[in-house]
Each structure stands twice: as structure tokens, then as C-alpha cells.
Amino acid sequence: MHEMALCEGVLQLLSEEAARQRFERVKTVWIEIGALSHVEPEALRFCFDVVTDGTLAHGARLEILRPDGKAWCIDCCASVALRARGEPCPTCGGYKLQVTDGDQMTVKELEVA
Predict the structure, then answer these.
(1) Which of 12, 22, 46, 66 gives 20 to 30 Å between its CA and that of 38?
(2) Closest C-alpha among 99, 110, 5, 3 to residue 60
(3) What is the DSSP-derived secondary structure letter of residue 62?
(4) DSSP H or E segment with residue 52
(5) Can you tell me the distance from the alpha carbon of 13 to that of 7, in angstroms, rounded to the nearest whole number?
(6) Can you list the domains of the chain with their CATH numbers?
(7) pTM for this structure?
(8) For residue range 64-112, what is the model confidence (pLDDT) as tens digits?
(9) Do the strands 61-65 and 26-33 form a parallel or antiparallel pair, or are they unpaired?
């Protein structure tokens, strides 16, 4: 489950920011997970609670934002929105799609004390 490793990375980021910005507790973390990212939101939520237990983010609320992905359709030469990998182009029905956005995971905002 790579979500555990991702949460460990988020916790490391939170610890580094706490030292840099001098806060002691994280109340809420907003994470953007693109629809095409191969990250399972519910698995991430579970792992976040496990990884943050007993840390500065213990009990923090995890808010997950899920923007659609975007791809370039080679068949119809258009930029299109996609909600999941494997979907056909909504314009022409083709499957020759190159992902251009929505495969990222980003910590967007923190509420701290």
C-alpha cells in the first residue's frame, strides 16, 4: 500500500514546516489528489490516521480535494477532462490520450496552532 509511504512523506513535510514556521500542532491538512493519480483517497485517509498517531498531527482532520484529470487526445487534437484513467475521450471516443494534469498529489493548505 503506497498510501502509507505517501502519508509518511506528508508527516515529514509537516514536521519540517513546524520547525521552520514554529507551530506545535496541525489541526487540518488539505491535500489535492488528482483523479488520475493512482492514490486511493480512503486508503490515504486510513493511513494518515495511523501515521499521525502520537505526532504533531495527531487527530488532525484530513480534507481531500479531487480535481478531474486532463489529457490531450491524439485522435481529435483536443484537451479534454477525465474523471478516471481508462475512460475514452469525451469528444471523439478515442483512447489515445496523454495525461497532462490530474496525476499529482499536493499539500495545499494547513491549519495549525
Answers:
(1) 12
(2) 110
(3) E
(4) helix 41-52
(5) 10
(6) 2-112 (3.30.2320.80)
(7) 0.86
(8) 999 999 999 999 999 999 999 999 999 999 999 999 999 999 999 999 9
(9) parallel
